[in-house]
Amino acid sequence: MVERLSKIVTFVILALFCMPTISQGARIKDIAQMEGVRNNQLIGYGLVVGLNGTGDSNGTEFTIQSLVNMMERLGIKVDPNQVKVNNVAAAMVTADLPPFAKIGSGIDVQVSSVGDAKSLTGGTLLMTPLKGPDGQVYAVAQGPLVIGALAFGGKAATVQKNHPTVGRIPGGALIEQEVPFALNTQNGLTYRLQQADFTTVSRMTAVINSHFGERIANAIDSGSLHIDIPMTFQNATIGFIATLEGLEVNPDSVARIVVNEKTGTIVMGSDVRLATVAVSHANLSLVITESANVSQPNPLAQGQTVVVPQTAIDVKEAESNLVVLKMGVSIGDVATALNAIGASPRDLIAIFQAIKASGALHAELVVL
After folding, report:
1. pLDDT in the model for residue 308
2. How far apart are CA 201 and CA 250, in angstroms?
């Protein structure tokens, strides 16, 4: 018995050591971004070929013109009036060029039909230059599309799954030109918060200064932070940035309730608080039923058989429950109290709007 108990205790201790550490903070790299380090959007116009009769119709003139121009550049003379584009679709190609991307590396592209093509399934994108806002070519895309959808049908019925006129090419674009960017650290680094907040930027400043043992971080405003590189990291900027972005901070946020009336979705933050308020909710159900009775005359009697409609109306009203929410209750108390009165998600949206109008809701109410 003693040996068995000893084994159990040993197992529990080992399990506790093997359990992952639960952290309440977020890494700086997840809530802030270095100024100047960003993606760049690219766009291009190309042709998708190899479609099984699901391409653009012959009335799509820009597809015919694009195909004729491409054939002429390849040294083939064609008559535009004889060109059919059932297996060809015009498409816009978009991509994001990540920072520090090097020539020859690949990036994902998205291909979207701009004509009246029914599906891009099985298609191949021809060589398409991708340009930046300055009009220069930074990448070239080409390759078979991955659609993940299907669309079949005839004149009477069609079957469609997902969206067949948009596809992706993983690693389908090769970078031909790099975006010039020099990591200039002479004046330090500037980080910008994804969600501007004075409390969060103040906590970031304190965490950074405490970790490096000197005052190198200074908050500029609620959304930006300037950091001086310590002398010990003057020749190891990349290591300093990696260490800096790995520090954990407890971000703060505004108390907010987000509701979507279209889908009935409700999301509440943990800092939502209420003043003392009484909530009463009752559902009114109105059911109207129509039926038809046949009125038929007796045998050998003169008359006509007629249909007599009958309407039944049933009104039901649920019992009204009055719930008192005390001041300072948490989100858990709010959810428990509102569930007690049997409110559905759409009912909760109306209740929150009413509580906000009464001035008892200490949170921002966002209606999508």
Report:
1. 60
2. 10
